[in-house]
# Entry
Amino acid sequence: MTHREDLKPSKFGTVFGALVGFGVAAIVAVNVVIFSGIEDGYEASLPEVFRQNAFVGVLVVAILGAGPVVGAIVARRR
# Structure
């Protein structure tokens, strides 16, 4: 019989999942900026994105905020 403690995810796995989630979120956020038609594309800073299109700016911030959270949740479920 397995102990309940053996089934708990490690803290290292959760942190690693959050880092991977942030990396994936950064890639997705850059692609959203590029495909939305922002003038400087991947070179645009966040204030420039907000100046040109506020909706895309909010979307990028949401993606960057949700990425580590989703990554940590996925890592804890495995």
